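PROTEIN SPECIFICATION:
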Amino acid sequence: MNSHTISAVVESQLCSGCGTCHVLCPHHAIEMRRSSLGRLLPVVDERQCSRCGKCLKACPGIDLSGQFQPVEEQLIGDYRGLYFGKSTTAQIFDCAQSGGAVTAVLTYLFNSHHIDAALLVTQRHLQACCYVATTAEELAQSQASQYTPIDLVSYLPLLSAYDRVAVVGLPCHIEGLVKLRQIRPDLCKQIAYLFGLICGGTLSHLSLDVISSYGNIRMNPKTDYVYWRHKKFSSYKQADLVWMQAGNTSKKIDRKVRHLAKQYLTPPRCLLCHDKMNMFCDIAFGDCWGIEGEDTIGGGNLIVSRSLEGDQLLQAMHDAGQLYLRSCSLHEVINGQGLNKKKRMVGQALAAYAANSWSLPGWAQYGGFRTERHSASDVSQRIDDYVRCDRQDVHRLAQSIVRSIRKKLLWKRIKHWFHALIK
């Protein structure tokens, strides 16, 4: 890494768009902007930049110090407890995308006066954006997960007016906050809890154009709202995307469309990320895939407690009857979250980055990943396609992706019909 600015991280496709460099820059020389595909990337004003290198030091994407290397090969991280859980409050559970555990925990912390604010993500004008909740009643607007980029760490200055704050973020956000706690603890002194979301990768903002085009939806950012997964219209496990429009009209889009869109619109850095399980937070929350006895209709959460404070909080809520909690096995978590597959993906992405002569993150020195050059062709092609697409006309690109998705879905139906026929 020769450059002294965050631009080198962007050029090497290591930027996750977390916003850590933006909030840290002492000269306000970094601005977060959207690329043509809809990634959030830092842009450096060279006239303001002093080339101090602080942005690089704090960047979790490049992780120069190797601080975020996996603590073991199963990619789950250190933990105190593995649980299946869900809110026991009907209103929270029914409105949740999964089991409502995050909202239940934040509600408990507000009502017990352990926090006076929470930094959360919601959706406005079809874009993910941050807001500060100061009461339990204000949590409802963040219950549905957002799958498009958000530079959550950029919003840290909003917390200066509060005493004890909980932050809910993706792995890249949490890693950025961990870095800031070490480099600029004054920026993070209000943060009492770091709650992490288990993450399979974000989608570029162009995904909304792709989905609306696929569903023949006339998009109106002022009135529309997208539920990326909505269990009210089906079951938790089979939840489709639901596009709400003015007058409460809605249109369901097959969940397979979102899954296929990820093949085209997941940024390269997400393919390289080994921290799917949010290893560096106090408590991690995700879907309960693969857990015995999971609620396939109403849903539930996988909950991973990592700190002593986090585990004590969960147990206190369970004892108070505000959170259903039962232990699950490491085997269920590894299989349900596809961690062995994720490990292979990271090895293949490392090989693809090396083939492009891009810089690798500091944790890549860890010996737990094989750079599988012989099997990296698919991942390498995805990365090359993404980088090329980020320079194309977005309207044409969206139409091209929609055509590809239609062809793949048609081929899936033909294969399904053929297999049914020969049986």
Remarks:
- The mean pLDDT is 91.
- The longest strand covers residues 117-124.
- The radius of gyration is 21 Å.
